[in-house]
């Protein structure tokens, strides 16, 4: 079970890195265009690995802070729904929207680090 948990943590971190990379790629290639697919894939990877980590924690009776899980789950749900709605509309976006998404990701990372 420890190997599965380590793989899920790695996938979760790669998904978070995907968000930050998507922000820089979006800024460089098409700042006013539609969202690139990397945003949607990062949402899927982070959500699946995050819920998998919660499931592994419950299965192994590992101690998890429920407040932290609620905050992270809520942030990711709001961010994920917003990204997917904007992505599937396939229209031009406001220039500051990717920065708002990246800030939400950084807020989730801060919650991960600061709430223990």
From TrEMBL:
Keywords from the named record: Membrane, Transmembrane, Transmembrane helix
Transmembrane region(s): 6-25, 37-58, 70-88, 97-115
UniProt protein name: Uncharacterized protein
């Amino acid at each position: 079970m420890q190997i599965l948990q380590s793989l899920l943590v790695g996938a979760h971190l790669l998904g978070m890195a995907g968000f930050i990379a998507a922000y820089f790629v979006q800024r460089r290639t098409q700042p006013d265009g539609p969202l690139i697919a990397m945003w949607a894939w990062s949402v899927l990877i982070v959500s699946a690995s995050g819920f998998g980590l919660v499931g592994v924690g419950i299965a192994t009776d590992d101690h998890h802070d429920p407040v932290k899980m609620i905050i992270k789950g809520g942030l990711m749900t709001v961010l994920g729904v917003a990204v997917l709605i904007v992505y599937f509309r396939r229209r031009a976006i406001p220039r500051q929207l990717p920065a708002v998404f990246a800030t939400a990701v950084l807020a989730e990372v801060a919650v991960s680090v600061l709430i223990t």
